[in-house]
Write a structure and sequence with these properties.
Number of domains of chain B: 2
Strand content of chain B: under 5%
Oligomer: heterodimer
Order of helices and strands of chain A: HHHHHHH
Number of domains of chain A: 2
Helix content of chain B: over 70%
Largest sheet of chain A: none
Distance between the termini of chain A: 34 Å
Number of helices of chain A: 7
Structural class of chain A: mainly alpha
Structural class of chain B: mainly alpha
Strand content of chain A: under 5%
Number of helices of chain B: 10
């Protein structure tokens, strides 16, 4: 649904642009392609890594690792799994709901979801190529720590 | 051709690894290939509009305009725009980096670009809706509110901790990448 909105927006703006200035629009499309082609090798690499990783680390395995556990060890494992893996949101949330049903606490799930979304070990090379080593390291490590704060707040609120 | 191999080196090595896995552990290998194709399809679905918007942004939005909207002196406006842009996104986080590069190239303040990245990573509207239905509204709203604070704080701390040289290097990279 949301993707449709994005498409409509892009198409409408593209048509507007074309009506206003054909040359510029052509330049914009060239630019779009160049930016995409520029990052394509890294995209492909990420897609293959994610494929292999998800094939090895299945949802069942994740739920075995953090499913029944509680406490800080469970949270730490959840955080590390979330940081390393790159699971699309539409897979992650049903997985999180399933984890909840299989006995994982809200805190483990909150930390898992947070590091999953904010920390990207696999995509660090791409991030470095745009932000440099220091900013990338800072962002990922702070996001990792922040995920525990999120979990603690969730744990307090949802008690 | 040599250039092609150099650029796609990592992808080719990983492809070889996947083929190796396919031969030694056929079940895992087949599954990983299926997953790769599935994810590639998902990615290709969201990528065309994102990059078209990126191209249009580059051509139509003047640097001065961008500096006014998201630059050093943009204040709250810049923060809000960065946050809304990131939240209105679709697609994986790594698709956000080229856009971040474009925003930097056009003169956005670094902390605003980091807020954009933060919002893209964790407060995307379509995902929030999904989260609410899977985990409940209370979980989603709590996480959203604390993220609102966390994204801003993380962005400001990173900006503070980077020296002017490191910042200049980031802007140079952005100019070169786009």
């Amino acid at each position: 649904m949301f993707t449709v909105v994005l498409y409509v927006l892009a198409i409408v703006l593209l048509l507007l642009s074309f009506a206003k200035d054909k040359v510029k629009t052509k330049m914009a499309l060239k630019k779009a392609w160049k930016s995409f082609e520029n990052i394509l090798p890294q995209f492909i690499a990420i897609l293959i890594i994610v494929g292999i990783m998800l094939a090895v680390v299945s949802p069942e395995m994740i739920s075995r690792l953090i499913g029944g556990q509680s406490g800080w060890i469970g949270m730490l494992i959840a955080a590390v799994i979330g940081a390393i893996t790159l699971i699309p949101g539409f897979v992650a949330f049903p997985l999180a709901a399933a984890l909840l049903n299989s006995g994982a606490g809200f805190m483990q799930i909150a930390v898992f979801i947070s590091t999953l979304m904010m920390v990207g070990i696999v995509t660090i090379p791409v991030e470095i190529s745009y932000f440099g080593k220091k900013a990338t390291f800072l962002r990922n490590s702070m996001a990792f720590l922040f995920s525990f704060i999120v979990a603690i707040v969730i744990g307090v609120v949802l008690k | 051709m040599r250039n092609f191999i150099k650029r796609y080196r990592a992808a080719l090595v990983l492809l070889a690894l996947n083929i190796f896995i396919l031969i030694v552990f056929p079940v895992i290998g087949r599954k990983s290939m299926e997953l790769t194709f599935y994810n590639a399809k998902e990615m290709l679905m969201v990528i065309p509009p994102i990059f078209i918007l990126l191209g249009l942004l580059d051509v139509w939005v003047k640097r001065e305009t961008m500096i006014k909207l998201m630059g050093e002196k943009s204040g709250v406006t810049g923060v809000v725009i960065a946050f809304l842009m990131g939240s209105a996104a679709a697609g994986p986080l790594y698709a956000a980096f080229p856009i971040a590069g474009m925003l930097l190239k056009k003169g956005s303040r670094l902390s605003n670009v980091l807020i954009f990245i933060g919002a893209w990573s964790t407060t995307k509207i379509p995902l929030l809706l999904f989260e609410a239905s899977a985990m409940g509204w209370k979980f989603m709203v709590t996480r959203f509110l604390i993220n609102l604070v966390g994204i801003g704080v993380i962005a400001l701390i990173i900006e503070r901790l980077l020296g002017s040289e490191e910042k200049a290097e980031i802007y140079e990279k952005a100019a070169a990448a786009n």
